[in-house]
Amino acid sequence: MDFELGDRIRIEKDGNVYEGIVMPTTTDHVVVKMVSGYNAGIDPEGATITLLEKAQPKASAKKTAEGKAKPSKKLPKVTILSTGGTIASKVDYRTGAVTAQFSADDIVDAIPEITEIANISGRVVYNILSENMKTEYWTELAQAVAEEIENGADGIIVAHGTDTMMYSAAALSFMLKTPVPIVFVGSQRSADRPSSDNAMNAICATKVAVSDIAEVCVVMHDSACDDRCAIHYGTKVRKMHTSRRNAFQSINSDPIGYVDYSTKKIETILPYTKRGTHELEVRSTLEPKCALVKFVPGADPDILSYYVDSGYKGIVIEGTGLGHVSTDWIPNIRRATEAGIPVVMTSQCLNGRICDRVYDTGRDILKAGAIEGEDMLPEVALVKLMWTLGQGGNLEEIAAIMATSVENEITECTLK
């Protein structure tokens, strides 16, 4: 066949036409990445294949003598910390892999618009799929952020996989008092797809990183269109769709504001901590032996016994409605709290507030020692409990902190 990896070809077979870039394959089929971003594998037998365009030779990156992106003295300094995100991901057509290249030059090469906003430097903290995140990685990330701020960064961008980004954003919200913006950003679709959101999200995140919003926040697409990104509190955001670009939404809260992609202007609608308000403070100790348990009808109450007997230090229950479990779970809740293990009630409903004073079951849950999780998301309650236990204190002190808004995780009046 007169084509190679990376060439653009047209395949005509059985009345269908496929056009795209030739991708690697381990079968006899020809695999092309089409304009839609999806791959198609076609058996070449009986097909007409036309070469449309040869692959362009890979250009070498232009570098300064120091091997870094050339800075501008007039622009603020922003550090992009990579945890395995896709801001500067590229397709290697020899292997078919989407890889993240995270030198400053690679970032600037992939998304050159950010050099008009800030002087960019890059640092790899770790390179993992976000489902492989662990509590000790949050500690490493918090320390890396603190180091960059101490070294003079005016803003931090954390490139993170989207699946667990809300956990990490919540963790850093509790672990760091920050004088500068700390912005989590990711991409729902890889850079090789025409519908990729990586560039827009990164550009909007950079605008927030040089803004006055000194919060740990998440910046992602706000709609199905390329019009604006939303700025979410790190403790109020959740991924609500598996693949849509506007998957991230603020729950029980509005976003802090929005970044208009065409004008690059920021509009804020909620209060936020302003740049320079706080001195840098790192409070990174966590208690990893905490569990998030989802109650379902008929679930065995011995599920709680397992965590009590296995040495867990805290339990968050994702209950039904206003924060309920079946009555046969209540003795084991009491057993946990009497053993000094805090039990926090949250809701599977996500929207709305816990209130265990309406029905008899809820009142019995409170008598057993459970703590109402107010309107916290279950995963945020879990991370907050890990952090609260890491700071020390008795059960009464822990309960008081869990019921108090520390980093915007509890709203005074939940939205209807």
Automatic annotation (TrEMBL):
Signal sequence annotation: none
Catalytic function, reaction form: L-glutamyl-tRNA(Gln) + L-glutamine + ATP + H2O = L-glutaminyl-tRNA(Gln) + L-glutamate + ADP + phosphate + H(+)
GO MF, one annotated term: ligase activity
Assigned keywords, A-Z: ATP-binding, Ligase, Nucleotide-binding, Protein biosynthesis
CDD domains per UniProt: GatD (cd08962)
Domain GatD N-terminal: 3-52
UniProt key word Ligase: yes
Residue span, Asparaginase/glutaminase C-terminal domain: 291-402
Domain L-asparaginase N-terminal: 77-262
Pfam short name (any one): Asparaginase
Record carries keyword Ligase: yes
Active site per the UniProt annotation: 86, 162-163, 239
Family matches, as InterPro entries: AsnA_fam, Asp/glu_Ase-like_sf, Asparaginase/glutaminase-like, Asparaginase/glutaminase_AS1, Asparaginase/glutaminase_AS2, Asparaginase_C, GatD, GatD_N
EC number: 6.3.5.-
Record-linked SMART domains: Asparaginase
Family from the record: Belongs to the asparaginase 1 family. GatD subfamily.
Function as written in the Swiss-Prot or TrEMBL entry: Allows the formation of correctly charged Gln-tRNA(Gln) through the transamidation of misacylated Glu-tRNA(Gln) in organisms which lack glutaminyl-tRNA synthetase. The reaction takes place in the presence of glutamine and ATP through an activated gamma-phospho-Glu-tRNA(Gln). The GatDE system is specific for glutamate and does not act on aspartate.
Subunit structure: Heterodimer of GatD and GatE.
Full protein name: Glutamyl-tRNA(Gln) amidotransferase subunit D
Organism of derivation: Methanococcoides cohabitans
